[in-house]
Amino acid sequence: MGSHFTWFDLAHVDHHYTYAAVSLCVTALVVLFSAVGRVALGNGEAAIAPASGFSLKGFFEALTEFIVGIIRMVFGSGHGELKYVPIFGPVFAYIVFNNLFGLIPGMTAATSNINAALAIGLCSFVFYNVEGFRHAGISYLKHFAGPSMGVWWGTALLALVMIPIEVISNVIRPFSLGIRLSVNMTADHTILGTFIDLTKAIVPVIFYGMGTFVSFVQAFVFTLLSMVYVIMASADDH
To answer: Is 27 part of a structural domain of the chain?
Structure first.
């Protein structure tokens, strides 16, 4: 079955690498919007004054407040949780912009491609494991052995059972994150494309609304699960 037309075909981009071209475009857009948003933020008192209306500054303020709210819900308040805003804010923005890109006629979502989705999942995997080692040092590896049983032989037997299970569970996480994201976005944009082909007008508007909702939900789920993995990796009572 042939691939759908995209505007990148006009630039003779191979269909196998369309997702990479989309990723580059979305990255450039996010960086550009962020730079313009920073300029719009201003300095001094202007920087802390809320946006007076709909604007790029207002959009990024709403996005930041949304991410801060999720982080405080997951990590709690007053524990240095805001240090994660520069991590999970861009992750959410990158995924949601990629998802929404697929709603543009003649475009496709990079997150629909399993390679791009797995790459984002691997980034999450690396980050939460780095956080685990940063929090506990080499003792982080004890997370894979299960709790202490009080006697050395009981702990050793439990570790023999738990280590393979925990290692497999951790290795699977980036794949589950990536596959979930890719499959859901592929299904969503396939349904939208099908109804556009069948009805051309009016009815697709409903599915554009649904597609927008799904795009935000999938970005939210990915970001939330990544936060949960960080909590699990840095927990003291694991």
So the answer is: yes
Listed residue (2, 7, 222) closest to 108, CA to CA: 7
Instruction: Express each pLDDT in 19-32 by its tens digit.
Output: 888 889 889 988 88
Residue that is written with structure tokens 């003779």 in the block: 12
Q: What is the pLDDT of residues 76-128, one digit of tens each?
A: 887 788 899 989 998 999 999 999 988 887 788 889 889 999 999 999 999 99
Q: Tell me, yes or no, whether 2 lies in a domain.
A: no
Report yes or no on 1 lying in a domain: no
Q: What amino acid occupies position 238?
A: H
Read off the DSSP letter of residue 50: P
How far apart CA 173 and CA 159 sit, in angstroms, is: 21
pLDDT band of 149, cuts 50, 70, 90: low
Give pLDDT, residue 3: 54
Domain count, the chain: 1
In Å, how far are 110, 147, 156, 158 from 152, measured between CA atoms?
A: 50, 11, 6, 10
d(CA 12, CA 29) in angstroms, rounded, equals: 21
Residue 119 lies in domain: 7-234
Q: Within a domain: residue 44?
A: yes
Contact 136, 96 (CB under 8 A): no
Quote the Cα angle for 91-97-98, to 5°: 90
